[in-house]
Specification:
The structure is a single chain. This protein is α/β, with parallel strands linked by helices. The protein has one domain. It contains six helices and six strands. The longest helix is centred in the C-terminal third of the chain and has 15 residues.
């Protein structure tokens, strides 16, 4: 399995984006993830450097996207890598999962799937963060009632109505 991760997006989901050296922190988190030992992972970061950078350690490739006329952001690099990984589908390619909650990236991935008849999977950063920490998603209360039963909701509504009148 190959994971292509929108690193800034995932760092935002993990609430570390504003930390100093958040990139190093995210790299350390990914390295500790048990599944990182058996899967190939690309972490693609935005960069302000016109040259960008790329290095690989074991099965983890870290990419700092160059900031130039070709790459406006890490999104462009993510799409490029996805296209390259799915080009020539006659060859046996690794299963590819793009991790991002960016709608534009996901729309472009859908277009790649349609045009190349490929099967790139997508996974929202929130779901991937839960995988990293083995958290089960919490069920959201129905109808946005924050887990309150109807009787409690009605009582609260009546109290508010009494206050407003």
């Amino acid at each position: 399995m190959l994971y292509l991760i929108d690193a800034n997006n995932l760092a935002g989901e993990l609430r570390i984006l504003n930390e100093k050296d958040f990139d190093k922190l995210l790299i350390a988190i990914i390295k500790k993830w048990p599944a990182s030992q058996k899967n190939k992972i690309f972490l693609v970061f935005d960069s302000s450097d016109p040259m960008g950078d790329k290095y690989t350690t074991k099965n983890l490739t870290i990419v700092y996207t160059p900031k130039d006329n070709y790459y406006r952001s890490a999104d462009d690099k993510i799409i490029e890598i996805a296209e390259n990984e799915t080009a020539g589908q006659e060859k046996k390619r690794e299963e590819l999962t793009v991790v991002s909650s960016d709608r534009e990236i996901m729309q472009k991935i859908n277009k790649i799937n349609e045009s190349n008849n490929s099967k790139i999977k997508s996974l929202k950063s929130e779901a991937f963060a839960q995988k990293l920490y083995k958290k089960k998603p919490q069920a959201k209360p129905e109808n946005g009632n924050r887990g309150l039963d109807n009787k409690t909701i009605n009582n609260i509504n009546q109290e508010l109505l009494d206050l407003w009148q």
